[in-house]
């Protein structure tokens, strides 16, 4: 993926949709595209997640096959906690942008609006939609 494609992919996902173009460019520059074949395990319960995953296409799912939010890893990366459930790619596979933990923490520090947006994301299993982008 070229930089422009990464920026458009990020802009399509809440809370990245709230960010300014300059902020998206910094994040897109640090993100690496990753293609994961169907059913591949990303991390097991009790494991450590080292990247934030932002969905471009496909899904990441839990043990029950329930799709996870388009942004996976925020709480685990912010707290350093163990992963509570197995995360694997869904039946169609997964394409995402991966952001290493160190860069994720730096970006959260530099983009406080992004951190606020992470706290507004629905919890796993919630049917609530993320807030609509503001009309600015």
Can you tag this structure with a few keywords?
136 residues; alpha+beta; 5-stranded antiparallel β-sheet; 5 strands
Structural summary, described in words:
By secondary structure, this protein is α+β, with helices and mostly antiparallel strands. It has helices at residues 3-11, 21-30, 74-79, 101-110, 112-120, and strands spanning 32-36, 41-43, 51-61, 71-72, 87-100. Strands 1, 2, 3, 4 and 5 form a 5-stranded antiparallel sheet that branches. α1 crosses α2 and α4 crosses α5 (112-120).
Query: How many beta-strand runs?
Result: 5
Which stretches are low in confidence, meaning pLDDT under 50 for 5 or more residues running?
A: 124-131
Task: Encode the helix/strand succession as letters.
Answer: HHEEEEHEHH
Shape, per Cα inertia axes: globular
Q: Radius of gyration in whole Å, from Cα?
A: 14 Å
List the helices and strands and how they pair.
Elements: H1 3-11, H2 21-30, E1 32-36, E2 41-43, E3 51-61, E4 71-72, H3 74-79, E5 87-100, H4 101-110, H5 112-120
Antiparallel strand pairs: 1-5, 2-5, 3-4, 3-5
Helix pairs in contact: 1-2, 4-5
